[in-house]
């Protein structure tokens, strides 16, 4: 067996963490909604957009931020959230790498960034 074709344990653990995070439908909804916003949004806007309590939204946003899917920025007493553009490009590549062994690196701060090609593909609306 060729060892170069095996995904490293560190990368496999990172990807598994991503997919565990996305295994929750509420987090998928939050991430999809945030990806369609043209600016960072405060928690109150997310709560207004989705039928969830503020504490539920905050919990799920914290999980998404911990796995680098969203970026949280404090401004005064509010926290603004936006999708991490590196993860938009890395997520499809992670799935591709797991299934087909294509080259690509995840968006973890400890690993190198990907090009924006996958991000443009992911964010295009489909008919």
TrEMBL record:
CDD domains (UniProt xref): HTH_ARSR (cd00090)
SMART domains assigned: HTH_ARSR
Keywords, in A-Z order: DNA-binding, Transcription, Transcription regulation
SUPFAM superfamilies: Winged helix' DNA-binding domain
Molecular function terms, GO-annotated: DNA binding; DNA-binding transcription factor activity
Domain HTH arsR-type, first and last residues per copy: 7-103
InterPro entries: ArsR-like_HTH (IPR011991), HTH_ArsR_DNA-bd_dom (IPR001845), HTH_MetalResp_TranReg (IPR051081), WH-like_DNA-bd_sf (IPR036388), WH_DNA-bd_sf (IPR036390)
PROSITE patterns: HTH_ARSR_2 (PS50987)
NCBIfam families the record matches: HTH_metalloreg (NF033788)
Name of the protein in its database record: Transcriptional regulator
Organism: Ornithinimicrobium avium
The organism's taxonomic lineage, starting at the top: Bacteria, Bacillati, Actinomycetota, Actinomycetes, Micrococcales
């Amino acid at each position: 067996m060729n060892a170069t074709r095996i995904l490293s344990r560190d990368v496999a653990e990172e990807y598994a963490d991503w997919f565990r995070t996305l295994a929750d439908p509420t987090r998928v909804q939050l991430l999809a909604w945030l990806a369609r916003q043209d600016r960072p949004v405060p928690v109150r806007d997310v709560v207004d957009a989705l039928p969830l309590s503020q504490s539920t939204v905050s919990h799920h946003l914290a999980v998404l931020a911990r796995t680098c899917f969203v970026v949280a920025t404090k401004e005064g007493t509010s926290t603004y959230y936006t999708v991490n553009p590196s993860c938009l490009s890395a997520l499809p590549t992670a799935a591709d790498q797991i299934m087909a062994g294509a080259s690509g690196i995840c968006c973890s701060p400890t690993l190198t960034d990907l090009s924006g090609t996958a991000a443009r593909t992911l964010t295009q609306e489909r008919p």
